[in-house]
Amino acid sequence: MLTILQKEFNAFLNSPVAYVVLGVFLIATGLFVWVFPDSSVLDYGYADLQTLFNLAPWIFLFLIPALTMRTFAEEKKAGTIELLLTRPLTDGQIIGGKYLACLLLALLALVPTLLYYYSVYQLGSPEGNIDSAATVGSYLGLALLAAVFAAIGVLASALTRDQIIAFLVAVVGCFLVYSGFDSLASVLQGSSAYYVSQLGIAAHYRDLSKGLVDSRDLVYFFSVVAVALQATRLALRSRNW
User: Fold this and answer.
1) Residue 241 has pLDDT above 70, yes or no
2) Using the 8-state DSSP alphabet, how is residue 128 labeled?
3) Residues 6 or more apart whose Cβ sits within 8 Å of residue 158
4) Spatial distance between the Cα atoms of 211 and 139, rounded to a whole number of angstroms
5) pLDDT number for residue 143
6) For the range 41-44, what are the long-range contacts, defined as Cβ-Cβ under 8 Å and sequence gap of 24 or more?
7) Can you give the pTM of this predicted structure?
């Protein structure tokens, strides 16, 4: 699995896709956090990074599927999937290596944004006047969100040989899991609205953004990842049906 992870990660770094994804993410977040007056931290008056944490999930919604769309679809189109599957590797090792490579690259995009935290920390009045617990929780939420989106993207890529279709399916799937349940809950009333909202990512992400690291939220994210990766495994096994 580690060999596949290294191969896939190096393949990303040797292609323009990775640099386009990282560049778009950093430019978009930088403009909204520091430049645009309606969302700039400098004009907002409060020492926090809420703009970043509200915007990043929507950018990830498109950028992570762009990373994952080639994982299996490209192998199928090039005819190398049969060669890969005949190697002395389990389906779990193949899926795990490709999935972790995509996730690692997505997490790499978050590393430069730590400079935003340092800047706000220094600019605060007094210095350090920022809710560090909420910031750490938000970064954890973004990392888990990226893990879920990457798992959905790998699943979408395993279902088709066309990268564009894999991208579109992944975007729709990520949107439904992130915002679809919240939208459905908004038209419901009573306890049913609460339970429906808990099926989506947004509610759990908001809890983590407050600095509340609840085991139920962690279990939710890991469960969604496990289900998506297991579905990917079934999709690969379907070749034998």
Assistant:
1) no
2) T
3) 71, 72, 95, 232, 235, 236
4) 10
5) 94
6) 41/116, 41/120, 41/123, 42/123
7) 0.90
